[in-house]
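Hi W.,

Here's what went into the run:
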Amino acid sequence: MSAPTDISDFSIGKPVRRSEDAALIQGRGRYSDDIAVDGQAFGAVVRSRYAHGRLRSVNIEAAKGMPGVLAIYTAADLAAYVAPRSPFALKSIDGSPMLGATTATFAKDKVRFVGDPIALVVAESEILAREAAEAVEANIEPLPAVTDARAAAAPGAPQIYDDIPGNLPLHTHFGDIDKVTDAFSRAAHVARLRLVSNRVVVAAMEPRAALFEYDPASERFTAHIQSQGVFGMRNNLAAAMGVPPEKMRVLTGQVGGSFGMKGVVFPEYMALLHAARDLKRPVKWSEQRTESFVSDHQGRDHDIDAELALAADGTFLALRMSGYGNIGAYVTPFGAMIAALNIHRNAQSVYRTPLIEMHMRCMLTNTPPIGAYRGAGRPEGNYIMERMVEEAARISGIDPIDLRRRNHIRPEQIPFATGIGTIYDSGDFTGLLDEAIEAADWNGYAQRKAESVARGKLRGRGIGQYLEITAPPTNELGKIDFDEDGGVTITTGTLDFGQGHATTFAQVLVDKLGIPFDRIRVVQGDSDRVTIGGGTGGSKSIMASGAAIVEAGDKVIEAGKLAASHLLEAAVSDIVFSRGVFSVAGTDRQIGVLELARRLRVATGLPTDCPVTLNAVHVHKASPSAYPNGCHIAEVEVDPDTGTVAVVRYTMTNDFGTVVNPMIVAGQAHGGVMQGVGQALMERVVFDRDGQILTGSFTDYALPRASEAPPFVIRNRPTIATTNPLGAKGCGEAGCAGALPAVMNALVDALKPCGVTHVNMPATPEVVWRLANGKQARAMD
Amino acid sequence: MAKVSMTVNGKVVTADVDPRTLLVQFIRENLHLTGTHVGCDTSQCGACTVHVDGVAVKSCTTLAVTVDGANVTTIEGLAHGDHLHPMQEAFRENHGLQCGFCTPGMIMSAVDIVNRKGSNLDEATIRAELEGNICRCTGYHNIVKAIGDGAKAMAGHAQAAE
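Here's what came out:
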């Protein structure tokens, strides 16, 4: 390290360089597949090659005799284990609970998607396990498959479960039909669009991998596994295996991206845990990318008809949506919730729209299950609303910016109780839009467009103003320990998979207790140490862990004042704490917080009311959801000869409340936007009519590369959240929410001269070329 | 089994391996150098990029036996003791990484780009040259900045050494 620096260089608001990076840039990270232990065996999973079929038999005899094979497990061996249910008590219109609560560990009588796990082969090496897996014969009688949600709902569609009629495990309705119908009857304008949110793969760059151990003496599992929080993963794995939570330890090291996907229990984990216990050997497993394309949960896949009713002056009267959520072949913890709850709640966005109605059919199909993917309904809801705003502007003739301003919730209306039951505590949506327009050089657009046209290109610009509801509240641990070596350890139960928690949370503690940045460690990945924690998800880590650390810091200060009063021989009421130092008011008697902690460790004979330590354990009680919002403006250039769309300018102005580390927050926004650009213009999981995946590698699936990414201009325009101690709002998923509408609105604008009024995602070159050249769209399915 | 011998990060290593062993498996499993990652198995993502005789190579689709006798550098061999390579430093300074999984390959590719294209790289060149490296976290903005800065710093180092 260089010379000592001022503590304030590391406090809240500073772009502190990440403490995580020294290891990562030198290849010293510890990702799941990097872990190896003596005596480990390897697992390989046999998967269904058919999207739908009767599993008549699984012949493992030939494979069993192959070199190095230790055991082969099928559904019959794993019948005792049950995948965790959705934490959301979702109910259909008729009051019945969501069906599909019998998710098998491994396929038993039927296979339901290409990739459905059938057997686990464990062998002495990875290559031997894979070879033996090839020799397992799954006798499958193929059945007709259905991969599209609307098709799955049609009469005569293949039935995927005998006990789930119509492939419809959940059929929900939200909103007041009579009031919404009345609003539409009074409308001067009604905008209507069918909006598709295309299915994407999560594509965390690190594939899933795990190493499971079992100690027969203590009857305890140790799971080295990726997660989004070890406390939740421990509980879920323990429940799945039918053991008490204390018989499961979860250790998570570095996680190479997750975006929602790695936070849940997958069927492979139960089989691997079983194998470790059965064989009394550590069992390692690491999926190849081809496997992750058919076994990881995928994202999005909604198909929604939306209508927006407007009064003559442009006032939004009601938003009505009706559609289909494709949740894949199995019900996952989050798959149905995204479609049934999150989309319409987030479609409220920054507008007063008093009535919102959503009619959603969550459909089972012969595709990999849907899970959480960056935003999990938040980008989809915002995409719908912002496309509807633009369409409403088009049909009403009202300027789209003006239309937004007329319908914004205004600062003087905050706190604002929305019709969907949220209460916005802060925000200045019109001010933010105005600043975004200025930042994007809105007025200089005509010249840029003329230059594009002169080069034979079409140019368009689009606004994506968004507001997200972060995850519902969960309790979170904030533990502060003053260590023997003079360091300070924060233990908290959110989990970093790229967000820079160690740096960010240390900054919070620097700010709170004046402890030097380089003395602070953050522990997140050991369930023996994280004794409670809601984990990472829904952009809530800074509200949950940040608040827990601030409040734990208050406990440190309180104990420290009492301890300092004894050591400094003053009344506790005379002790003040500032920038890491306890002092007696009006004197030069003082002691630093680290020195005080050290003295307490070694002191003897202190009075009985003097704290013996400054260590603090605190559980933060659930800060409510926050409402990060912002306005993104994209400019695109379309080459009418090739149909390629280039995002040539991208400007965002965001309100994330208090920003602890603006460098990290900007990075989160960049990445989120790029995932949005990918979904809008490139990415799509494609199945053929038999349910085979046609986009099963990065050769076939268009994941954005550097040349497809725009440079970003980013501004912070915070209003401080009033519902958590830091005033923060969360930023992890916001990029996607702004990017989908900004890019697609820009593309529609660019294609306006071609008579185009709407394009569904992904707007691939073929789609755009046809639109730009007046050709019929080709049926994609 | 096949005998293979190469120099990795300055050390001569020799082993008997299954001839199917990929270079990345040899590096990760035989040498326990786990900084080189496998992200895709199809030469698309670039997380496995190492240098073979000074040239960037995707080690997930290279058989170990085909680089017998070669000089291999992995991410662990890029720094000189406590002194980070300028490209490593540039990635940290520019927040060019988030989850860090693609980072070793990105850095190895970045050094290779500078070796091939020089230190005065414009943004379009960097973006085009990164075609073989995928990142899902950063949106590339800060990676592009890091490579531009790292390239300049590499030139500065080379000058200082002369």
